[in-house]
């Protein structure tokens, strides 16, 4: 399980060093993709197969909404294997998508990591913290 928040920097060669505590889980390769909230997501290859390919790949491609999601996730994805220092290359299109420059925050999100521009993450976190109790209440009501 991926959890926590880590401040990192993207180097001049567009590489990001992944948090040390997750390197073993990511050593066999990762899939980098566009996230739904304009983050750049990092999935271990097996989690990508289960979560994204297994779910979105099985949707009816005749439906326009399915094609939209498949284009976002599959068209924007890139594979990489972390080097000995735990670095992955962030392709230009993903840097642009996430508005990522030098300073980023990497957060754990259960089965994957999310990479955020640090200033954007601070703003997003304020919104999350301000609405979490309302969201929890709505979700709890759905399970009654």
TL;DR?
The chain has 144 residues and is α+β, with helices and mostly antiparallel strands. The chain is 41% helix and 26% strand.
How is this structure best described in words?
There is one protein chain. This protein is of the alpha+beta class. The chain has one domain: Transcriptional regulator MraZ domain (Chemotaxis protein chec, 3-Layer(aba) Sandwich), CATH 3.40.1550.20. It has five helices and eight strands, in the order ββαββααββαββα. It has helices at residues 23-26, 45-56, 64-75, 92-97, 118-142; strands spanning 5-9, 15-17, 30-34, 40-44, 78-80, 87-89, 103-109, 112-117. The strands form two sheets. The chain has a six-stranded antiparallel β-sheet with strand order 1-7-8-4-3-5. The longest helix is centred in the last third of the chain and has 25 residues, at 118-142. The chain is globular.
């Amino acid at each position: 399980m991926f959890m926590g928040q880590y401040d990192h920097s993207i180097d001049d060669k567009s590489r990001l060093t992944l948090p040390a505590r997750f390197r073993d889980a990511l050593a066999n390769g990762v899939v980098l993709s566009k996230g739904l909230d304009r983050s750049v997501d990092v999935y271990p290859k097996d989690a990508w197969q289960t979560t994204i390919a297994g779910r979105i790949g099985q949707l009816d491609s005749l439906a326009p909404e399915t094609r939209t999601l498949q284009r976002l996730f599959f068209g924007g994805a890139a594979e990489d294997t972390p080097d000995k220092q735990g670095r992955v290359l962030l392709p230009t299109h993903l840097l642009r998508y996430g508005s990522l420059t030098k300073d980023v925050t990497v957060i754990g999100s259960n089965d994957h990591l999310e990479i955020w521009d640090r200033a954007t993450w601070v703003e997003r976190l304020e919104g999350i913290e301000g609405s979490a109790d309302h969201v929890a209440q709505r979700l709890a009501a759905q399970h009654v």
